[in-house]
Amino acid sequence: MSPSERARESSRTHVAYDDVNELIATATRLMQKDTAPETLTAEDLRRIGAELDIPARYVDQALEALARRREAQALEARAREAQARLRARRLRRGAWGGAALLGLMAVWGLVVRNGLTSSMADVARQRAQVRNVLERRESLRARLHSLTPGPERDAELSGADNRVSVEIRRYDERAASFNAAMTSFPSGWIGHLSGLPASLPLSSEVSTW
Predict the structure, then answer these.
(1) Is position 120 within any domain?
(2) How far is CA 55 from CA 41, 48, 87, in A?
(3) In terms of Cα–Cα distance, which of 37, 13, 9, 8 is closest to 23?
(4) Membrane spanning segments where (predicted)?
């Protein structure tokens, strides 16, 4: 046996007098811990109470109070668990609701964008129609220029002028409708995000059709 091993063995078999009290107290606590039951019956508690001059009815009342407190704690724990489950369900519903709302907003935004695009296309078609009636009027004027003025000639020219006025008015109506949509919220915001023009010119602002 090495010197260090002999020293450890000596420390286990030889105890100083100053350490005896501490060693005995530690051994007593360990023994009590091993021999003490994990739970006590009501009869055990009544017997302990009798040793301490505590009447049995007070022990029973204390047991009832303990049972009520434990039951209240169990109910509180179950309530907390139920609240946690409810919060989790609400969070899940909120997540699904948020996703559904985003989906609806996306669809709605697409519908608004398509409406604005369609409105702008209507304006473009009407502008082409104005250009068409203007060209037809100029062609008619050139054809009637050499004719002698008269009711029939004047009626044809007046009819051509009226057709131009009607088509220009229709153009202004469509352009004004598009411009109104682009100045409203959120249609205008969606239109700007989609790259659509902020406004379309009215007939008074058009120099060349």
Answers:
(1) yes
(2) 16, 10, 48
(3) 13
(4) 94-111
* Structural contact between residues 191 and 113, judged by C-beta atoms closer than 8 angstroms: yes
The H or E element containing residue 177 is helix 151-183
- 101 falls within a domain: no
- Please compute, for residue 86, the number of CA atoms within 13 A of its CA located in the half-sphere on the CB side: 6
The CA distance from 186 to 184, in Å, is 6
Closest CA to 76 of 66, 68, 64: 68
For residue 202, what is the DSSP state? -
Q: Which residues form the domain of 129?
A: 109-205
The structural domain count of the chain equals 1
Question: In this model, does residue 191 exceed pLDDT 90?
Answer: yes
Strands (E), 40-183: none
Q: Is 146 within 8 Å of 105 (Cβ atoms)?
A: no
* Block residue for tokens 């996703």: 99
Give pTM, 2 decimals: 0.55
Q: 61-107 pLDDT, tens per residue?
A: 988 988 899 999 999 999 999 999 999 888 888 888 888 888 888 89
For residue 24, is it within any domain? Answer: no
Task: Decide if 26 is inside a domain.
Answer: no
Only one residue has tokens 């009501």, namely 42
Side chain identity at residue 62, one-letter code: A
Q: Which residues contact 190 (CB under 8 A, 6 or more apart)?
A: 109, 112, 113, 116
Q: Please name the helix (run of DSSP H) or strand (run of DSSP E) that holds residue 151, with its range, or none.
A: helix 151-183
